[in-house]
Amino acid sequence: MANKIFDVAVIGGGIVGTATAMALARTHNYSVIVLEAEAELAAHQTGNNSGVIHSGLYYKPGSLKALNCVEGREKLYAFCKEHGIAHDQCGKVVVATDESEIPRLNDLEQRGNANGLKGLKRLSPEEIKEIEPHVTGIDGLFVRETGIVDYVEVTKKFCEIVEQNGGEIRTSARVLECKRTSDGLTLTTTKGPVQCKNLVNCAGLQSDRVARMCGVEPGLKIIPFRGEYYELVPEKHDLVKNLIYPVPDPQFPFLGVHFTRMIHGGVEAGPNAVMAFKREGYHKTSFSMKDMVEAVFYRGFWIMAFKFWKMGMGEYYRSFFKGAFVKALQRLIPELQGEDIHPGGAGVRAQALEPSGALVDDFRIVEAENMVHVLNAPSPAATASISIGEKIAVMANKNFATM
Ligand SMILES: Cc1cc2nc3c(=O)[nH]c(=O)nc-3n(C[C@H](O)[C@H](O)[C@H](O)COP(=O)(O)OP(=O)(O)OC[C@H]3O[C@@H](n4cnc5c(N)ncnc54)[C@H](O)[C@@H]3O)c2cc1C
User: Fold this and answer.
1) Ligand 1 proximity of 174 Cβ (cutoff 6 Å)
2) Nearest to 279 by CA among 271, 287, 269
3) Which atom number of ligand 1 is nearest to the Cα of residue 384?
4) Helices 64-83 and 381-399 sit at what angle, rounded to 10 degrees?
5) Contact 61, 107 (CB under 8 A)
6) Which atom, in ligand 1's list, is nearest to the CA of 374?
7) How far is the CA of 12 from the centre of ligand 1 (A)?
8) DSSP summary character for residue 156
9) 16: CA distance to ligand 1 center in Å?
10) 140 CB under 6 A from ligand 1?
11) pLDDT category, 401, cuts 50, 70, 90?
């Protein structure tokens, strides 16, 4: 096994890496190995997300996000049906609670139509209550295509298919070094060396570092944004039937705190978006000197901080004061009280930031000799994963050395 030369090594056992490995192994017949740093698959973004199958409502028409979300969503529903993975296409409501949000709700509806959504329906305050009896809004939008699923289950199924097609999944195998040799590429991992002809970097929160390790300058830096959740206490689950979202601020890439019914039961409220002081920083006290030093010596960081400081302070305030979080949620469900929610988990988003201070909005996938690097795959990349994986496999097929 030590001497085996794989056609492709995929770095990262999250949903994007494993979907890519599935497409490479199943459709293109490559011998594939997935190298995952952690002992478990989907340990980071994929395993700590909201579990929403996004419709494609929010994204700029023609963008990679829009195209892959719409295509990926349908493929994901079909995949779940085919493999018996629990999911529910329950739809969601987006609720305007203030007159100033109505023009933005109009824009969202237009975007959704431009992205080919068929199930959009404008809702009066009474119609909002028919769908979500505890929600008070002045205008709303019902999005039929939205659903819920457990993305860890989906990832595990992708891996089963990789293995059925001759691929290998190696966990606890953090890639530490990448060297070009006469045979291709040699990867040093925490579980021994791996020889491959080509690689795909799907390392999420570490994708910029992995690119650099592979000799590719990413031209951006990953900045971690933690999203903290509360959970509704069981007696209050009936406050939420399915999914309830506010109208998002188009200046900010995150969607605002919302209510999400989970596929295995329970209701989450959140996530907020606070800058984390560590890339895999799931707690308020998580801190990494390396991550912070890298961030503060990056020009783009200060430009972003200057631009978003006010919004950022609001998010920190909500993070530390439950009352403020409850107030944000009460905009959607006025009768919700502090004792109705208790702290839940957290996820950390890998958000790419350019030296200009611009948050990279779209997916960013770059090619190099014998390599493909996925440098920005934020939400809705879990929804879009099957489609992204197929696109990367097609790219790889063209780019990689003849095998
Ligand atoms: C709070 C939150 C809520 C979200 N909600 C949704 C949602 O409802 N719907 C949706 O579609 N999307 C959602 N997203 C986005 C979605 O989860 C991500 O876009 C998606 O999971 C990205 O997958 P990935 O495989 O690129 O990254 P990850 O899941 O982070 O996987 C990357 C993997 O690479 C591994 N790795 C890193 N470095 C190395 C190395 N050197 N060697 C080997 N392995 C390495 C990591 O351990 C990790 O497992 C959410 C994200 C967050 C954080």
Assistant:
1) yes
2) 287
3) 11
4) 100
5) no
6) 26
7) 9
8) H
9) 7
10) no
11) low
Work out the average pLDDT over 214-228: 97
CA dihedral 365, 389, 381, 352 (to 10 degrees): -20
pLDDT digits (tens, 9 = 90+) for 363-396: 999 999 999 999 999 999 999 999 999 999 999 9
Asked whether the predicted pLDDT for residue 342 surpasses 70, the reply is yes
- Alpha carbon distance 64, 376 (integer Å): 11
Q: Residue 402: which pLDDT band, with cuts at 50, 70 and 90? A: low
The protein residue with its alpha carbon nearest to ligand 1, atom 2, reads: 49
Determine the Cα–Cα distance for residues 180 and 196; give it in Å rounded to an integer: 10
Å from CA of 403 to ligand 1 middle: 30
Rounded to whole angstroms, what are the CA distances from 207 to 16, 201, 316, 389? 12, 7, 26, 16
The DSSP code for 95 is E
Mutation choice for ligand 1 from 45, 50, 260, 274, CB with most ligand atoms inside 8 A: 45
CA dist., res. 231 & res. 277, Å (int): 24
Q: Look at ligand 1, atom 3, and give the residue with the nearest C-alpha.
A: 49
Residue 380 preceded by cis peptide, ω within 30: yes
Q: Which of 142, 336, 90, 93 is nearest to 231 (CA)?
A: 336
CA distance 292 to 198: 32
Which pLDDT band, with edges at 50, 70 and 90, does 315 fall under? confident
Please tell me whether residue 212 adopts helix, strand or coil conformation.
helix
Residue 389 Cβ inside 6 Å of ligand 1? The answer reads: no
Look at residue 371 in the predicted model and tell me its pLDDT.
Answer: 96
| Burial class (CB within 10 angstroms; exposed 0-12, middle 13-18, buried 19+) of 84 | exposed
Segment (H or E) for 163: helix 151-164
93 Cα to the center of ligand 1, angstroms: 25
Return the structure tokens found at 197.
């002809």
Determine the pLDDT at residue 309: 84
* Residue 403: pLDDT over 70: no
Q: Could you tell me the distance, in angstroms and rounded to a whole number, from the CA of residue 37 to the centre of ligand 1? A: 13
Residue with tokens 């988003």: 349
For the ranges 99-113, 297-311, 378-392, the lowest mean pLDDT is seen at 297-311
Query: For residue 47, how far is its CA from the centre of ligand 1 (angstroms)?
Result: 7
| 45, 63, 112, 306 from 59: Cα distances, Å | 20, 7, 8, 25
